[in-house]
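Task: fold both queries, return tokens.
Query 1:
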Amino acid sequence: MAARYAYECPECHSTIELSTTQAGQQLTCAGCSAVITAPKLGVIKGLPAVGGQSATPARQGRAPKSGSPLKSWLFTGGLLLAVLGGIAGSAAQYRANEFRVDIDFDAAVAKEMDLIDSHSPAEIYGIAVESTKDSFALEYSEVPYRTSNIKSGIIQWVAWTCFGVAGVGLLMLLGSFFVKNQ
């Protein structure tokens, strides 16, 4: 059963009973036969109830719990850190790649071969012995086709730091699901 509300006719000031289903409709006043427009739903719900009914029905069950402030801060802060850290890290990584330098592999090999050709075998053996004194074995490594310079190295460090901040944000976000409401 819909609640009924008391509305005063603007013409004759007699009481008209309205329900929420009549909001915005054309009505005829029983006292003066004037055609009036019923107020909007928000206005009707603010009117006094008719016949001992409560204007706002009582809620059944428990009131909803308000969230813990710690949970809210963890969730909001974690989400913010994760999104901003990820965006900043991606942008910095992209920028670091712009500073990398392409290596002409053939020119680099030719330069090393010229350096080797300029020394005698005894000098090359001496250099090899000196360079391997501190290491246990000679390691083979290919010359990369791209190399980082100092600028790209610093920007890459910033990128990985931002990714670390994003990781902390994700941990905070995940932790917010384990905090109990108070």
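Query 1 returned. Query 2:
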Amino acid sequence: MVNPILRISLTVYKLGALCMQWMQDKVYSIREAAANNPKRFAEEFGPEWAMQHLVPQFLHVVVEASKERVPNIKFNVPKLLQSIIPIVDQSVR
């Protein structure tokens, strides 16, 4: 039997990985929604959890997206950073 906490952690990890993929999608509306996901996750699970689990993954995506040749994907870098700032701000208070 799988521990319920472990099951939740695995589910959230999978969702985080999906969000990373969505940030690089060719469809604008999907990238736009993905850029808002960190804020929604932080609201649901708290800023401390988001700092520990999401921000490192999202920062990796920011670095990779900034190297992208496709301008529309590069434009998501500031949007993603903008969604991460409130999470970081709450966790350092």
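Both queries returned. Flag for query 2: Residues 4-23 form the longest helix (20 residues).
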